[in-house]
């Protein structure tokens, strides 16, 4: 079964491929010649996942799924949330986002946060949503060089390392996206 994951991010493709059963051929947007940046115009994480999945199924006619993720920080009233990618500006710069987050949390003792991923799956006859969450805290400074995005400052609950100090395998056991993907896989198996 060929399934399009609506992403240009090779890190995400690698993470998700490692979780899927072998009979699912997972390809990214570049492999179907979709090189545009799909607009994410919703003000919710769910809404953006749905927009991206619908864009691909309508324009390219493939079974597909799209994910959208937000980092919700308690002391910032849930920000950056749906704005996580552009927190520090339109360039979607991971380092700038991390720097802004640490600046906004400077002196804050409540460092509780969670990653939330929503996946919108569009098959020929049905559309379904899945969700995955991982709770944790925001570190005082970046640590580690694995992963991407906010990984260097996110310490998952029960760990002392940041996501960026864990291997992909370790991150995949507990991450928000892995939890959402597991829901997706359970569904695809039925
Ligand atoms: P997107 O929905 O995957 O585009 O992600 C929104 C924002 O959250 C971007 O800034 C990503 O870098 C960040 N993000 C998404 N997934 C992860 C993750 O697994 N670790 C760290 N940051 C992530």
Question: Secondary structure elements and their pairing?
Answer:
Blueprint: E1 2-5, H1 10-17, E2 25-27, H2 45-60, E3 64-73, E4 80-81, H3 94-104, E5 112-122, E6 127-138, E7 154-156, H4 168-174, H5 176-189
Parallel strand pairs: 1-2, 1-3
Antiparallel strand pairs: 3-4, 3-5, 5-6, 6-7
Helix pairs in contact: 4-5
Inosinic acid (IMP) binds next to strand 3 and helix 3.
Task: Explain what you see.
With 190 residues, the protein is of the alpha/beta class. It has one domain (2-189): Alpha-Beta Complex (Maf protein), CATH 3.90.950.10. The protein has helices spanning 10-17, 45-60, 94-104, 168-174, 176-189, and strands spanning 2-5, 25-27, 64-73, 80-81, 112-122, 127-138, 154-156. The chain is globular and about 50 Å long. Inosinic acid is lined by residues 68-69, 71, 84-85, 94, 97, 147-151, 163, 175, 177.
Largest sheet: 7 strands, mixed
Tell me, rounded to a whole number, the average pLDDT: 95
Helix percent reads 25-40%
Order of helices and strands: EHEHEEHEEEHH
How many domains?
1
What is the chains' assembly state?
single chain
Class based on secondary structure composition and strand pairing:
alpha/beta
Count of alpha/pi helices: 5
According to CATH, the fold-level topology is: Maf protein
SS elements, strand count: 7
Please give the radius of gyration in angstroms: 16 Å
Q: Give the N-terminus to C-terminus distance in angstroms.
A: 14 Å
Level-1 CATH class name: Alpha Beta
Instruction: Tell me which ligands are bound.
Output: inosinic acid
Residue fraction in strands: 15-25%
Poorly predicted runs are none
- What would you say the CATH architecture is? Alpha-Beta Complex
Task: Sum up the overall morphology in one term.
Answer: globular
């Amino acid at each position: 079964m060929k399934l399009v994951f609506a992403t240009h991010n090779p890190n995400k493709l690698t993470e998700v491929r490692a979780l899927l059963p072998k009979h699912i051929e997972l390809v990214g947007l570049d492999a179907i010649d979709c090189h545009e940046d799909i607009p994410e115009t919703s003000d919710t994480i769910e809404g953006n996942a749905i927009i991206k999945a619908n864009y691909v199924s309508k324009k390219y006619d493939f079974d597909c799924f799209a994910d959208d993720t937000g980092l919700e920080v308690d002391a910032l009233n849930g920000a950056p949330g749906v704005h996580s990618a552009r927190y520090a500006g339109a360039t979607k710069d991971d380092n700038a986002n991390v720097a802004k987050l640490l600046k906004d949390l400077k002196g804050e003792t409540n460092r509780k946060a969670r990653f939330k991923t929503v996946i919108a799956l569009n098959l020929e006859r049905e559309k379904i949503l899945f969700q995955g969450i991982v709770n944790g805290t925001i570190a005082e400074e970046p640590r580690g060089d694995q992963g991407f995005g906010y990984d260097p400052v996110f310490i998952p609950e029960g760990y002392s390392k940041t996501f960026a100090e864990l291997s992909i395998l370790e991150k995949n056991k507990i991450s928000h996206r892995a939890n959402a993907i597991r829901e997706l896989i359970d569904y695809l198996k039925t």
